[in-house]
Each structure stands twice: as C-alpha cells, then as structure tokens.
C-alpha cells in the first residue's frame, strides 16, 4: 500500500477542485443551449458536447499536474502509466439525462483512487454552487466555490436510526431493460419500508447528499468507477459506511454499492438481501 502524506492529498484535492470548477464552467456554458444529444450505443445512455468538452478541460489540468498518474475518464477511456497505483476516475457530467432535459440536478465528479481505494473526492453542483470535497483523514466539507480554505464547512451524515424514518435514494443502470437484476424489486420494497426513495439521476450527488445528511442511505448496481470514486470518500469521511449489499468490503469494480449514515446500514443490508425480483409478487400479495 502506498504511503501518502496529508499534504500530498491536500494538493490533489486543490487540483481536483480547480479541474471540477473549470469543467463546470463548460457545463453552464451549454446549459439549456444544446443543439444535439447523442446516444452512446445503449438506449437511453446519452452524451453531449458538454460531456466531451468538460472532460477535455479536466484531462488537461490533471495531466499537467500529475503526468505520472493513470486516468479513467468516462468519455475517453483509460490512460495507464507506470505509476499506476494512482488512478483518477473522472465523470465530467454526472446526470447527463437530467442535463439534456434541463432538469437541474447534475455535477462534475473527480475521484482519486490509490491502490484501488478512493482517497480524494471532489463533486461540484454548479446550479446550486455546492462544492463537496473530502480526502482520507482530512474530513468532508460542503462550500461555495469561492469559500476560502480556512472557512470550509464540515459535513456529517444524518442521525436517523431506523429504516422506517429514513429517506433513501437509488438509481437504475442503462442495462435495466436487458437484465432481471434491474433494481425494480428493491426500489418497490424499500419504498414500502421507508419514508421514501428518491431517484435523482446523479450517483455522485446521491452520495454527496448521504455525506451531508440530507439523505440517510443509497444503494445502486451497474455503476462505473467514475460514478463512485469521489462520493465514496465523501461518505466515509463524513462518518458514513460504504460496503457491498451484504456488508462485505466495497470494491469499486463490482459497480454495486450500499452507502449509509452507518446507523441504518444493517437494516438496509438485510432488506436488500431479503428482497429479490422473484419474491416481489408474493410480497405485495401478502401486504394489506
Ligand atoms: C448516471 C447517473 C445515474 C445513475 C446511472 C449513471 P451519467 O451517470 O449517475 O444517477 O443511475 O447509473 O450511469 O450517465 O449521467 O454520467
Ligand atoms: Ca455518471
Ligand atoms: Ca457522465
């Protein structure tokens, strides 16, 4: 495992912030002004000039500052270097469907994995000017883009103790029409057990909202490292817990995540394991 100093992580955080803010200027430039929206192959998986141009801006900044680090960027793919224990996972526009429909919930998400573990994360929502940041051992914060370093506002997960008092969030992957593992059963069941389940459409902000205590928990499958890297370190540094559904250690390559305020982790895990698509009909025929 590589040893990194907090000074080094802080520097990574500052550069990632610079990149996220530069990318967000591109997103705002095209906001409401898209001439065309393309599909990437799979039905419903959209891409726009804003995704591509904002990614180019991020790549230039990360490469200039960290020429030896590897990069995994949603629109351009993977660039591997010898010093491959450092991997930047970049989503230039998380929430492209929202963005294309002018639904104001999207972000830029930039995470740094060291030896496969998320250690630095920056998520910026340019519509609300909310900048979420975290790094291992440095805590998690939410500020405006212009907030000076000394004034940063720490964030913490919610104090909600039980699932029936929780507000959750989830999402549905682009393969949902092709797989029975489409999260529909889990969504129905958790809607029944909680105060509500949101489907906001930007995985990175879903995680940031768990970190900030606005939501109590999140689960989803079919995600990519760029959706998750930054949000995972935010939740962890804000006092939350991130694992697989069965509470085994989180592994970013599985694309499956359960993130909570820690207090409801056990209950959410057992609900997710209890429900399965084939049990849903039986469940709803038995409830009053
Ligand atoms: C998507 C969003 C969405 C999640 C999808 C992701 P994109 O990312 O995060 O909330 O449910 O699985 O792919 O395509 O907008 O970057
Ligand atoms: Ca995404
Ligand atoms: Ca994206």
Q: Topology of this protein?
A:
Elements: H1 6-30, E1 38-39, E2 46-47, H2 49-65, E3 70-73, E4 77-79, E5 86-94, H3 96-100, E6 107-114, E7 117-125, E8 130-135, E9 139-143, E10 167-170, H4 184-193, E11 196-198, H5 203-211, E12 217-220, H6 225-237, E13 241-243, E14 257-260, H7 265-274, H8 280-286
Parallel strand pairs: 3-5, 10-11, 10-12
Antiparallel strand pairs: 1-2, 3-4, 5-6, 6-7, 7-8, 8-9, 12-14, 13-14
Bound molecules: D-MYO-inositol-1-phosphate (IPD) and calcium ion (2 copies).
The site of one calcium ion has 4 residues, from strand 5.
What do you see in this structure?
It is an enzyme of class 3 (hydrolase). Its cofactor is Mg(2+). It catalyses: a myo-inositol phosphate + H2O = myo-inositol + phosphate. Keywords: Hydrolase, Magnesium, Metal-binding. GO terms for molecular function: inositol monophosphate 1-phosphatase activity; metal ion binding. Strand 1 and strand 2 form a beta hairpin. The strands form three sheets. Strands 4-3-5-6-7-8-9 form a seven-stranded mixed beta sheet, sandwiched between helices. The model has no long low-confidence stretch (mean pLDDT 93). It is 33% helix and 23% strand. The termini are far apart. By secondary structure, it is α+β, with helices and mostly antiparallel strands. The chain has two domains: 146 residues, Fructose-1,6-Bisphosphatase, Chain A, domain 1 (2-Layer Sandwich); 123 residues, D-Maltodextrin-Binding Protein, domain 2 (3-Layer(aba) Sandwich), CATH 3.40.190. The chain contains eight helices and 14 strands. It binds D-MYO-inositol-1-phosphate and calcium ion (2 copies). The site of one calcium ion (CA) has 6 residues, from strand 5.
């Amino acid at each position: 495992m590589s040893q990194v100093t907090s000074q080094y992580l802080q520097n990574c955080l500052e550069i990632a912030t610079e990149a996220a803010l530069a990318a967000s200027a591109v997103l705002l430039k095209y906001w409401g002004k898209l001439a065309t929206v393309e599909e990437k192959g799979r039905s419903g998986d959209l891409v726009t000039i804003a995704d591509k141009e904002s990614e180019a801006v991020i790549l230039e900044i990360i490469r200039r500052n960290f020429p030896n680090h590897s990069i995994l960027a949603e629109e351009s793919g993977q660039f591997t270097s010898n010093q491959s224990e450092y991997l930047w996972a970049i989503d230039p526009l998380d929430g492209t469907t929202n963005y294309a429909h002018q639904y104001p919930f999207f972000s830029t998400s930039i995470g740094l994995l060291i030896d496969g573990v998320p250690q630095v994360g920056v998520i910026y929502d340019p519509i609300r000017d909310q900048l979420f940041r975290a790094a291992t051992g440095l805590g998690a914060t939410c500020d405006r883009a212009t907030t000076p370093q000394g004034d940063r506002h720490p964030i913490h997960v919610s104090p909600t103790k039980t699932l029936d008092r929780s507000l959750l969030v989830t999402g549905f992957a682009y393969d949902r029409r092709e797989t029975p593992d489409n999260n529909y059963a889990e969504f129905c069941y958790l809607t029944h057990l909680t105060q509500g389940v949101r489907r906001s459409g930007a995985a990175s902000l879903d995680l940031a909202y768990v970190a900030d205590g606005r939501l109590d928990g999140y689960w989803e499958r079919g995600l990519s490292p760029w959706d998750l890297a930054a949000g995972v370190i935010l939740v962890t540094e804000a006092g939350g817990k991130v694992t697989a559904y069965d509470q085994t250690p989180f592994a970013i390559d599985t694309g499956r995540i359960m993130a909570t305020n820690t207090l409801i982790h056990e209950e959410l895990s057992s609900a997710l394991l209890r429900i399965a698509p084939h049990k849903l009909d039986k469940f709803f025929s038995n409830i009053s």
